[in-house]
Amino acid sequence: MSISFFIGGARSGKSISAENYTLNLGNNPFYMATCEILDEEMALRVKRHQQRRDKNWTTIVAPLDISGEIQKIGTRGPVLIDCLTLWLSNHLLNKNNLDEKIDELITTLINSKSDIVLVSNEVGTGIVPDNLLAREFRDNAGFMNQKVASVSDEVYWVVAGIQTQIK
Q1: What DSSP string describes 31-91?
Q2: Is the Cβ–Cβ distance between 149 and 34 less than 8 Å?
Q3: Which of 142, 72, 154 lies closest to 118 in space, CA to CA?
Q4: What is the pLDDT of residues 57-91, one digit of tens each?
Q5: Helix, strand, coil shares of the chain as percentages rounded to 5?
Q6: How far apart are CA 47 and CA 44, in angstroms?
Q7: Does the pLDDT value for residue 114 go beyond 80?
Q8: In what order do the strands lie in the sheet with 58-61?
Q9: Could you tell me which residues come within 8 angstroms of residue 101 by beta carbon, excluding any fewer than 6 positions away?
Q10: Catalytic residues
Q11: In angstroms, rounded to a whole number, what is the distance separating the alpha carbons of residues 25 and 91?
Q12: How far apart are CA 23 and CA 79, in angstroms?
């Protein structure tokens, strides 16, 4: 079992890098999508992601319960979770306890019997947002990314389609 973490800015190429990495971990990969399709723009993003993946991938939609889905998969194949920042925003907008949810995820990752690959956005390198909700999201995303990186065996920073291993 290994935990690999791909982090970068929007449209940095982190999802493609993580998909290719996951394919090298074994047959029958699982793609855990955390987004909810609430508008046409998101539907188009999802469609582009799906077109990149071949029929060997099993897609699971998990906007809130990543931990439960990881446990259901067990050892049946490597798991790619894309992406943690959407998962975090889903919990934030549902007014769930973010510290609790992040800690639950970390415990699940540590105890998992599968190879897990995670994707997340780095949102702390820009300016400080001017509203409370955006600052709360940015701060919690930073804390989440730190915790995930701390339990990951490998961490990759992706920028301009180039991945660099930083752990």
Answers
A1: EEE-----SHHHHHHHHHHHHHS-TTPEEEE-SS-HHHHHHHHTTSS-EEEE-HHHHHHHH
A2: no
A3: 154
A4: 998 989 999 999 999 999 999 999 999 999 999 99
A5: 45, 20, 35
A6: 5
A7: yes
A8: 58-61, 30-33, 79-82, 116-121, 3-8, 154-159, 162-165
A9: 88, 91
A10: 49
A11: 29
A12: 10
Q: Which two tokens stand for residue 53?
A: 């993946």
Per-residue tokens: 122:
């780095």
Structure tokens at 21: 């990495």
Domains, the chain, ordered by start = 3-165 (3.40.50.300)
Neighbours of 141 (CB within 10 A): 22
Q: Is 41 left (phi over 0), alpha (psi -120 to 50) or beta?
A: alpha
Q: Which two tokens stand for residue 34?
A: 């955390």
